[in-house]
Write a structure and sequence with these properties.
The protein is of the alpha+beta class. The protein contains 13 helices and six strands. Keywords: GTP-binding, Magnesium, Metal-binding, Nucleotide-binding, Nucleotidyltransferase, Transferase, tRNA processing.
């Protein structure tokens, strides 16, 4: 028995020695450069937000003849690219987008890539950028992509539910401020005949009420009637829905919403977000259209089924 035990230890020693030797031989004299690498782990138990922002998109939108003040093609393309990110990364609970930016909120308890900052931000940014290019023709049809778009990205940590809500509220408030300004600015230019410099001077120092009055009195435009997507931006959530054409099946989809997320109502209605729990089945009302973004995620649908469904 003692001899067998000694033999077993010897065999184990030889195996470990062989493995160590193989590992040692696999390295080169240049391997030391890896010691210069540093890992940037994000703090645990914090909400992780990755915000992507277009680089020089004023120039990009002008070069590609985006409609002013809002181009629905560009906004829907941003939403489509963002939905690709949500479908790929299950730990993203909510995303918010407006203009040329998108914010992705990860579960505070995520262990994705061991919470390495560079891994998370580079993968999210590259997938979003690639999706933007990939789906370009679906939204801009024959408008050729003249040069590659570019996005930067950053990671921000929010330690509490309150600070996360304040961050998203800040982005939605920013959407309203910018859209009201742009809507009034381009009305003065495109309908009022002012130059860009004259329109900018006209709006200098004005309040929201002043801009609303300009739109209503000079251009017969009630800002309240503008599309919600322009005023509120887009909220993307993962929701379980009843398949519209296969009533016995459920499917998790990325659902676009254009709602006020600053007030408590949104967070009460979607209480699963902060509680990190699964939400209840989401049901579309009879008068509610199923968004094209949702339809694009329902596989194996024939053209006939799409044409006869809610659109």
């Amino acid at each position: 028995m003692f001899t067998k035990r000694i033999s077993a230890y010897c065999n184990l020693f030889q195996q470990l020695k062989a493995r160590f030797s193989a590992t040692k031989m696999a390295k080169s004299k240049f391997e030391y450069v890896r010691t210069y690498e540093s890992e940037d782990y994000l703090l645990p138990n914090c909400w992780i937000v990755v915000r992507i922002d277009g680089k020089a998109f004023h120039k990009f939108s002008k070069k590609h003849d985006f409609e002013k003040p809002n181009d629905p093609r560009a906004l829907h393309l941003m939403n489509r690219a963002a939905s690709s990110v949500l479908n790929e990364y299950k730990d993203i609970l909510i995303a918010y987008g407006q203009s040329d930016e998108y914010s992705f909120v990860f579960r505070k308890d995520t262990t994705l890539y061991n919470r390495r900052k560079t891994k998370i931000t580079t993968y999210i940014n590259s997938l979003f950028s690639a999706s933007y290019v990939y789906f370009w023709r679906e939204y801009f049809k024959d408008a050729k992509l003249k040069y590659p778009p570019c996005f930067d990205s950053r990671v921000i940590l929010y330690p509490t539910d309150e600070t996360l809500r304040d961050y998203l509220s800040w982005r939605q408030a920013d959407c309203h401020i910018n859209n009201l300004y742009n809507t009034t600015f381009w009305a003065l230019v495109l309908k009022g005949g002012l130059t860009n410099a004259e329109a900018e001077q006209r709006l200098c120092g004005t309040l929201s009420s002043d801009k609303n009055e300009i739109l209503f009195s000079e251009f017969q435009t009630n800002y309240n009637n503008e599309p919600q997507m322009y005023k509120k931006g887009t909220i993307l959530l993962k929701k379980k829905i009843m398949h519209p054409f296969k009533n016995d099946k459920h499917k998790i989809v990325v659902l676009p919403l254009h709602e006020d997320l600053i007030q408590d109502d949104f967070w009460v209605k979607n209480s699963e977000l902060l509680k990190l729990k699964s939400g209840e089945l989401y049901s579309f009302t009879d008068s509610e259209k199923i968004p094209d973004l949702v339809l694009s995620q329902l596989h194996n649908l024939s053209v006939a089924e799409k044409d006869t469904g809610k659109q």
